[in-house]
Amino acid sequence: MDAKHTHSEEWAEVTPDAARRLVTAAVAAFAERGYHATTTRDIAGRAGMSPAALYIHYRTKEELLYRISSVGHRLALDILRRERDRDGTPAERLARAVRAFVRWHAEHHTTARVVQYELGALGEEHYTEIVELRRDTDAAVRAIVEDGVATGDFDVPDVRGTTLAVLSLCIDVARWFNAEGKRTPDEVGELYADLVLRMVGHTG
Fold it and tell me: Among 78, 113, 179, 184, which residue's Cβ finds the most Cβ atoms within 10 Å?
């Protein structure tokens, strides 16, 4: 469990403290049991609160999932946009973007699993909003790949398909990453940056 991250900068915007504790508890419960198998009583118990106290801050379990998904997707999108807009060659920018994106999914793997794999449990309105954030995420990476194709740095016959493959590869880190494993988040980020540059045909 990536508790030290879950309790710190990741949920800084969630206030008051009781609401933050509920989000943290929900992340742990959803990651461990899945959204549908988790009850509001489970979440409240993990947060050291009564079920009634939960409803002061969140009307439904789905609203909690939406809060987690919204914060997680926005943090991940900010990482990619920041790297997209920095100076450097397309290869440098893509490598930095992949390193940072992968590192986030490794360091926050518990949260990222909930953010990336419980999307289907959201209500229609919330689902639509999160899908738009995912489109923006795709667009941020695609813009770097398109820049590389335009400059001749990359050889990519299918930009959209390749962008999807890059994002899928990076996101999957959240599913398998183990904090007790042999590779650190930084090492995984370096490995994936190299893999992605090969995917886009960069030979520099």
Answer: 113
Please list the alpha-helical segments (H only) found in 16-158: 17-33, 40-46, 51-57, 61-84, 90-107, 109-117, 124-151
Count CB-CB contacts under 10 A for residue 39.
13
Q: 72 with 9: CB under 8 angstroms?
A: no
| CATH class of the 3-57 domain in this structure | mainly alpha
- What DSSP line would sit under 126-165, residue for residue? HHHHHHHHHHHHHHHHHHHHHHHHHHTS---S-HHHHHHH
- Per-residue pLDDT tens for 126-177? 999 999 999 999 999 999 999 999 999 999 999 999 999 999 999 999 999 9
CATH 1.10.357.10 fits 62-199, yes or no: yes
pTM for the full model? 0.87
Q: How far apart are the first and last CA of the chain?
A: 38
Q: How far is CA 45 from CA 25, 40, 105, 117, 192, in A?
A: 8, 8, 27, 24, 38
Query: What residue segments make up the domains of the chain, in order of their start?
Result: 3-57, 62-199
Spatial separation of the C-alpha atoms in residues 62 and 159, rounded to whole Å: 35
How far is 172 from 174, CA to CA, in rounded Å?
5
